[in-house]
Amino acid sequence: MSALIRNLRPALSGLLRPKPAARTTVPPPPTARRYYHAPSTRRSHEALKSPGPDSLVRRPPPSPHAPAVPRPRYYSSRRPRSSNEVKVQIVIAGVVIVGGVVVTICYGTFETVPYTNRRHFVVLTHSGELKLGESQFNNEKKELGDKVLAPSHPDSVRVNSIAAEIIGAAGRSLAGHEDDKLLDGETCADDAALSPKKKAPRGASQAMIKHLDGFKWEVIVVDNKQVNVMCAPGGKIIVYTGLLDKFNTDAEIAAVLGHEVAHAIARHAAEKLTKHMWIFMLTVFLLIFIDAPDLIDKLTEYLLGLPFSRKMEIEADHIGIMLLASAGFDPRIAPKVYEKLGKVGGNSSPLKEYMSTHPCSKKRTQLLLDAKVMDKAMALYTEARARKQEIDQ
Fold first, then answer.
1. Which residues of the chain have pLDDT under 70?
2. Any residues with CB less than 8 A from the CB of 166 and at least 6 apart, and which?
3. Which end of the chain is more exposed for a tag (fewer CB within 10 A), N or C?
4. Of 312, 275, 2, 264, nearest to 126 (Cα)?
5. CA–CA separation, 229 vs 255, rounded Å?
6. CA distance between the termini of the chain
7. Which residues form the Peptidase M48 domain (predicted)?
8. Sequence-separated (6 or more) residues with CB below 8 Å from residue 60
9. From CA 221, how far away is CA 151, in angstroms rounded?
């Protein structure tokens, strides 16, 4: 559905953009024919020396090295739209807006994000989210081809083992699981590893984690020097080996994986699809009154799209540090990870941050070091260590 919206947007923008007026070629006026006398040599030299106002002496052609004379510039406004074009735009906008309202009413639902308790509205169903994630993940694997490391590769085994700790901690903390089956190789052996079976502790209701039913967690490692991790809906995660080169300890890798698992738990992909659908509806509506598609696209992107994306990243940071602590990793490593990421990517200026999908590393670090966040994470970390000690005994 997200791909459909991206494909429809330029097409409808082209329909809403008025066509330029057809230019008619006007033939140049006929050049006046000049007649030249055949003066004597003496008269010719005199004329060249001091030509009179009515002299018909031919001027010498301009030198090729002479400075070019700037041509006059003509500024013209866009052709006003006709009434028929405005009617067509209104019809298209009406169809798009009505369709968006119908989708919102039929499929929209309010949900609560675990850990942050934020209420958000999504229009993508749980089954639709799983299908979307499977499709995106399979397409990525086809494009990557041989760059995907085998499940038996040491890097793949290591990353899957760390991811299993994070996913298992999410299952226990959200749904009260104590004996979840985790990742087996590339995929999760139990499709409902995060399914609610018991009453969730810490106030997590069954509705908050209902969408985790049917999640098929899968983590693959790609041989690529890029320092990056991707997360598709439904628990599909892609890790690049460039990240493993920059972060050597398991705790650092766990902090990054906790952030990606948080995106899946919070259903950020479904929420982002919902926001983009509304932004697209707003863009089509504004094009009726403002004949500037490029300007409207930039305004909606910088005022609505990018701020929303940064908000999702901050929320994933918050959930991720809680998952990190619940898995038994020291949560104090998370702020250091984002400091290192800032050095790898280069510390961005406020202007660059405003034009980016992610907040700057300094801001992310400060938010994680906040006393309320860190104290809560340390409490989860203490519980996790005590639980591990009991298991070892």
1. 1-79, 175-208, 346-349, 393
2. 254, 257, 258, 261, 323, 324, 327
3. C
4. 264
5. 12
6. 51
7. 207-368
8. none
9. 9
Residue given tokens 């369709």 in the structure block:
99
Q: Using alpha carbons, select from 338, 329, 326, 313 the residue that is nearest to residue 380.
A: 326
Catalytic residues: 260
Token pair recorded at residue 227: 């320092």
Interatomic CA distance for residues 385 and 33, integer angstroms:
102
DSSP string, 245-265: HH--SHHHHHHHHHHHHHHHH
List the structure tokens of 248. Answer: 């050597």
Separation of alpha carbons 374 and 335, rounded Å = 10
- What does the pLDDT look like over 222-275, one tens digit per residue? 999 999 998 888 889 999 999 999 998 999 999 999 999 999 999 999 999 999
Token pair of 171, please? 């299952």
What does the alpha-carbon distance between residue 335 and residue 359 come to, in Å, rounded to a whole number? 14
Taking the C-alpha atoms of residue 382 and residue 386, their distance in angstroms, rounded to an integer, is 6
Cβ contact 244:252 at 8 Å? no
Alpha carbon distance 158, 154 (integer Å): 6
